[in-house]
Amino acid sequence: MHKLERPTQPNELIDAKQAYTGSISQDEAWRSFKKDSVRESLKNAQDGLCAYCEIKLSQDTRIDHFKPKKLDYRLTFDWDNLVLSCDGIDSCDNKKGGEFEEYWINPYITDPASMFKFYSDGQIEGATQEAQKVIEDFGLDSPRLIMKRKGMLSFLTEELLDDIDTLEYYKNMDYPMFPTAYKQIIDKISGE
Fold it and tell me: pTM to 2 decimals?
């Protein structure tokens, strides 16, 4: 998880928010809303990655209400409450479900990068007790994610990066998935 910059709100969402009075259920209002511009805007802002686990998103990934819309109908079309989350079995979206905890981290609001420790064997650890709870609540330590992180990051070893030119190459590379873990491991190896 890393800090995300919220893009400009799509006009379709502004119109839907202004028109919605809570007279129909939040689920019905959201289901009937055309979400393409919202999904595309968030996908670009998140570099096509899940806001929580940083895995590649599917084409029609779900738009997650960070704080569930069932808590307050005004959250249904609240731009600051929307993120893209991975979906499917054992995904962040399914783990999180329709729950909400005050200690959860919205990466569009809070910079969470220093709250987690990543390792090249795919493991993740919370820097605080609350961060550890976030890992558990969102399934960031699921076997699926550990294996994917390990598969993508296990090549990052001190032996590989002991050459200054190789280290500089990898420091300047944009990594397609798990960029927070990638950067943290590179920084640890280089002593930064």
Answer: 0.90
How many other C-beta atoms lie within 10 A of the C-beta of residue 23? Answer: 8
* C-alpha count within 13 angstroms, C-beta hemisphere, residue 178: 26
Q: Which residues pair with 62 in a beta bridge?
A: 85
State both tokens at 20.
């919605």
Give the integer Cα–Cα distance in Å for 190 and 159.
Answer: 11
Query: Which residues, 6+ apart, have CB-to-CB distance to 112 below 8 Å?
Result: 1, 2, 3, 105, 131
* Angle value at C-alpha 65, between 4 and 1, nearest 5 degrees: 30
What distance in Å separates the CA atoms of residue 181 and residue 116, rounded to the nearest whole number? 9
Integer Cα distance of 181 and 113 in angstroms: 9
- Contacts of 146 by beta carbon, 8 Å cutoff, 6+ apart: 121, 122, 123, 124
* Alpha helix stretches (DSSP H) within 6-157: 11-19, 26-32, 36-45, 92-96, 129-138, 143-153
Q: Domains of the chain: which residue ranges?
A: 11-190
Q: What is the pLDDT of residues 176-188, one digit of tens each?
A: 889 999 999 988 8
